[in-house]
Amino acid sequence: MAARYNSENNSPPLARPGIYLGRMVIFLILVGFLAFILFKQITPAFLANPGLNGLILGVLLIAVLIAFGQVVRLFREVGYVNAVATGAQAKKPPALLAPMVPMIAARKTGALLPGTTGYLDTIAARLDEGREMLRYIAGILILLGLLGTFWGLIDTLSAVGGVIKGMRGGGDAGVMFDELKSGLAVPLSGIGLAFSASLFGLASSLITGFLELQAGQAHARFHNELQDWLLSGTASEPVVAGAVRPVAAAGAQDLKEAVERLTAIVSEGGGGRAATLAMTNLAEGIQGLVQHMRAEQQMIRDWVEAQASRERELKQVLDRLGRERV
After folding, report:
1. Mean pLDDT of 119-138
2. How many Å apart are CA 54 and CA 174, to the nearest integer?
3. Quick check: helix, strand or coil at residue 24?
4. Element (H, E) at 193
5. 3-state DSSP call for residue 151?
């Protein structure tokens, strides 16, 4: 968890995601170096089915560009928040943080506007939706590899069937075995290369999974640091002696924020994942409000029982004093 923002040193509260880009670049360099070393072994496997293997590598290239785009987009978001926090000239708000411009501006005065936590959850859902394409591509790469494998197996079995049908019957067993062995040499030599699509598909899926992991870590760090910075600006409420804040007020505030969050998502035409997340938060807010109300009722019952106990003790003391005087 990132450290709380300190307004006195005027330091940027959000860190740039350059470390995650560095990890992704280093990983791709290592993969390229490994491919260079195994170039002689990889080339025959690629040429066994150049069409499908080329499609797999093309899809991998698209996944790499999407993964880098998901991390690079954070530079604009981080730069805007840091500019507002340090008092520098802020550019046009990026698309992701556009709904939170009032919250970010209010943070300079140490205030926390209503609905901030709801918008933070919405941003987390949007970041997660941006990585869904990477997860889908990882699954597509595996399916393309399996498709190439089954394709190669079907061709091999068809060739084996043709060899068996072309054999002449009634001849010498040794001659027939030699004909079978020579006829199966070609299709069986290519059965190993039939799995080349699975090799490229699994390797590409592995690369895509690592890039998606780095993008997810960059998104999580951005969201956590933004949440820490915004919520650290909450002004402390004055405490009056003998005054107790109603427990149900906290639950009502959570419920209000959940309703505002759901309304904002519906009005913006949010996706199914964001709407589901908002509905879940709304249900949790209702449940929390019920729990707060039960806790408040229990506090009232305890207070009434304590008052009744004190009255009984006071009555016993008064009766005892009355008897002693008599």
Report:
1. 86
2. 43
3. helix
4. none
5. helix
Q: How is residue 152 annotated by DSSP?
A: H
Output b/e per residue, 60-73; b: 16+ Cβ within 10 A. beebbebbbebbeb
Q: Does the reported pTM lie above 0.85? A: no
Q: How long a stretch of residues is the chain?
A: 326
Q: Cα angle vertex 234, ends 230, 235, to 5°?
A: 150
**Is the pLDDT at 113 greater than 90, yes or no?**
no
pLDDT at 235: 41
C-alpha 230/C-alpha 112 separation (Å) is: 7
Positive or negative: CA dihedral 41, 44, 47, 48? negative
The SS3 assignment for 32 reads: helix
Q: Which tokens belong to 5? A: 């923002």
Q: Cβ distance 203 to 38 under 8 Å? A: no
How many whole angstroms separate alpha carbon 284 and alpha carbon 281?
5
CA distance 100 to 82: 14
- Distance between CA atoms of 201 and 180, rounded to whole angstroms? 33
Maximum alpha-carbon separation in the chain: 136
- Distance between CA atoms of residues 186 and 197, nearest Å: 19
Residue 242 φ/ψ region, left for φ over 0, alpha for ψ in the -120 to 50 degree band, beta for the rest: left
Judged against a pLDDT cut of 60, whether residue 148 lies above it is answered with yes
Rounded-to-5 percentages of helix, strand, coil across the chain? 80, 0, 20
Burial class (CB in 10 A: 0-12, 13-18, 19+), 127: buried
How far is 310 from 235, CA to CA, in rounded Å?
39
| 95: its two tokens | 């698309």
Q: Is 258 exposed, middle or buried (0-12, 13-18, 19+ CB in 10 A)?
A: buried
Dihedrals phi, psi of 167, to nearest 5 degrees:
-70, 140
Query: d(Cα 22, Cα 196) in Å, to the nearest integer?
Result: 30
